[in-house]
Amino acid sequence: MIILEHIYHARQAEYLIAIIGLFGFIAFWRVLNGPSAKPRTATVAARSFADRLAGFLAPADVMFHPGHGWARIDSADTVTIGMDDFAAKLLGSADSISLPKPGSKVKQGSLGWGFKTDSRVIHMLAPVEGEVTEINEAVAGSPATAFEDPYGSGWLFKVRSANLTSNTKNMIPSTMVGQWLEGLRQALYSRSESMSGAPMYADGGEPVRGIAKAVDPEMWDELAREFFLTK
Q1: Which pairing describes strands 120-125 and 56-57: parallel, antiparallel, or unpaired?
Q2: What percent of the chain is helix, strand and coil (3-state, nearest 5)?
Q3: What pTM, to 2 d.p., does this model score?
Q4: Is the pLDDT of residue 83 over 80?
């Protein structure tokens, strides 16, 4: 019994030492990494190739609307809205952007924002409905950010919605995003002849930026109707 009691106390001491060591390691790790370290938003350059489908960036944490807007859920009733990489590559750039005002309401499938580029006005559809709570002032002042980092610092505005569940039913199913983007890639490729032979894909197969700039205004209206679902 005395021997067993000694073994029991020895085991207790071992567990106590292990626990102290664990807490000491945690404290050391926090000091090593800094108490104020915060996760950084990934940029286009930092995103992995695994986020690319059919040559377009397609992060798994966003939902895609057929009109090429995306929505990222922030909370139970709030989402961040932006345009997808397909739209960014198709347009290439914009001189200015028109965003909805905070307090205004947008409707899924209706006009959400617009770009002006080379005297053309390009409208895009809102991917969800709800009240606009915040706009990205950086993008409002410099639309280039929306094209350089469409899923990160190039987000457009935030929406509070009471119908997120019903809205998601009209988004592209996550299992179908790759197939959807591949269909778009093929549709663009099939139009290469009508785009005056303009290059559509860079070396390596990635779509070039500003594809739409190679077409005349009449053809652009047709492209906008087809890809952005606007009239």
Answers
A1: unpaired
A2: 40, 20, 40
A3: 0.74
A4: yes
